[in-house]
Amino acid sequence: SSQLPDGQVLPLPSVILGELGKDPQNPTVCFYGHVDVQPAKKEDGWNTDPYTLTEINGVHLFIRNLYGRGATDNKGPVLAWINAVETFRALELAMPVNFKFVIEGMEEAGSLGLEKLLEEENQSFFTDVDYIVISDNLWLSNNKPALTYGSRGNACFFVEVM
């Protein structure tokens, strides 16, 4: 919970913890994402209502652009991981990893309550996690995505794409 300046206490949104797969032969990858957004108004420069996801055809026949608050930060990336799991299941392919998900709704306000939850779950939910993927990153331009491979306080890796 969070206390307001007037003393009123508001409950924080729940953090969603999910998992799929327990194969001891597979590594366990934990994916983090958030679904909250910063405030927006159409007058801020939006061509569409920022809180209504709007699909607009792109310049190519098969490209569609999605416009809406949080489509890239961070609802789209969260949904991409869920769609990846859905695709493996639909194709009846073996999962290459065990999946764990941490999806929160307070990142834009400093992830209130997340640290406490992580400490509480450290000896249970997170004990078998081998890797963590934070999919809350940006694109360098409309055609150039960014691959975040390290951040302060975490282990960093060099990735070469050939």
TrEMBL record:
List the Gene Ontology MF annotations in alphabetical order. dipeptidase activity; metal ion binding
Look up the record and give one Gene Ontology term from the biological process aspect.
Answer: proteolysis
Task: Enumerate the UniProt keywords alphabetically.
Answer: Hydrolase, Metal-binding, Protease
Gene Ontology CC terms: cytosol
Recorded hits in InterPro entries, A to Z, give: Cyt/Met_Dipeptidase, Peptidase_M20
Q: Which Gene3D superfamilies match?
A: 3.30.70.360, Zn peptidases
Cross-referenced Pfam families = Peptidase_M20
Q: Which domain of life is it from?
A: Eukaryota
Q: What is this protein called?
A: CNDP1 dipeptidase
Organism the protein comes from: Cinclus mexicanus
The gene from which this protein is expressed is: Cndp1
